[in-house]
Amino acid sequence: MSSLLVISAHAGDFVWRASGAIALATARGERAKVLCLTYGERGESAKAWREGRTLDEIKQLRRTEAANAAEVLGAEIEFLDAGDYPLLENPELVDRIVHVYRDVNPSVVLTHPLADPYNQDHPAAARMALQARVLAQAIGYDAPGDPLGAPPVFFFEPHQPEQCDFKPNVLLDITPVFDTKRKAMECLPAQQHMWDYYTELAKRRGVQLKRNAGPNLGLPHTTMGEAYMRLYPQVTEELA
Ligand SMILES: [Zn+2]
């Protein structure tokens, strides 16, 4: 059975950038798992800090919000609480991610792009996600489960795509699940300014999706999209 693994630096990232893909997977009856390396407690919780909450309160708040969003999407969620701002790369954390790969055995992996001059936690998460994928493929790596195959990796769209060398080469039609994405976004009131921003982005990506699909598919003007960028070549027996 197909399964989706989403590796997210902070608690909110997967919601803005990949929740359409997650909702599509679970609507098909597939397993979807979100792995949040941190809660985004220091770097992406400004509203809660301004309200005078403590670090532990903020972690709990973000955990609850992200868990609610995952529930809306029908996805599993796990938090590694590795600490953000900075999220530091280390072998123990990579090893924990390897264990998740071996458990989920994903057919598709989603994570951050490798560049983000505004947020160093995002590329750190991506580097660890990719390193763990390679280790999970090795039969000699000491972790439970079978060696991983070669699941394709898609980078999800960063907040400032041009500065992150993000050039979409996959446009995913999320029209059937957009209402679910919006509900998932609304589980994160700490970042309420993002709800409309990512709704507008989905509309723009939908326009581009229609343009690239051509008129014959008859996609509606309400088409909504999410943009992705493949890391590895697509393998196919027929060019299409
Ligand atoms: Zn983030």
Strand content: 5-15%
Q: What is the N-to-C succession of helices and strands? A: EHEHHEHEHEEHHE
Label the CATH architecture.
3-Layer(aba) Sandwich
- The CATH topology: Rossmann fold
Number of helices: 7
Mean pLDDT: 96
Query: What is the global morphology?
Result: globular
Q: What is the count of structural domains?
A: 1
CATH first level: which class?
Answer: Alpha Beta
Cα distance spanning the termini? 24 Å
Low-confidence stretches: none
Going by helix content, strand content and strand pairing, the class is alpha/beta
Helix content: 40-55%
What can you tell me about this protein's structure?
This protein has a single domain (3-230), classed as 3-Layer(aba) Sandwich (Rossmann fold). It is an alpha/beta fold. It has helices spanning 13-27, 46-50, 55-73, 91-104, 121-137, 178-185, 193-213, and strands at 3-8, 31-36, 76-79, 108-111, 153-156, 170-173, 225-230. The mean pLDDT is 96. The radius of gyration is 17 Å and the shape is globular. Zinc ion (ZN) is lined by residues 9-10, 13, 40, 44, 119, 122. Zinc ion binds at residues 9-10, 13, 40, 44, 119, 122. GO terms for molecular function: hydrolase activity, acting on carbon-nitrogen (but not peptide) bonds, in linear amides. Keywords: Zinc. This is GlcNAc-PI de-N-acetylase.
What attributes does this structure have?
Rossmann fold; seven-stranded mixed sheet; 240 residues; alpha/beta; binds zinc ion; single chain; 7 helices
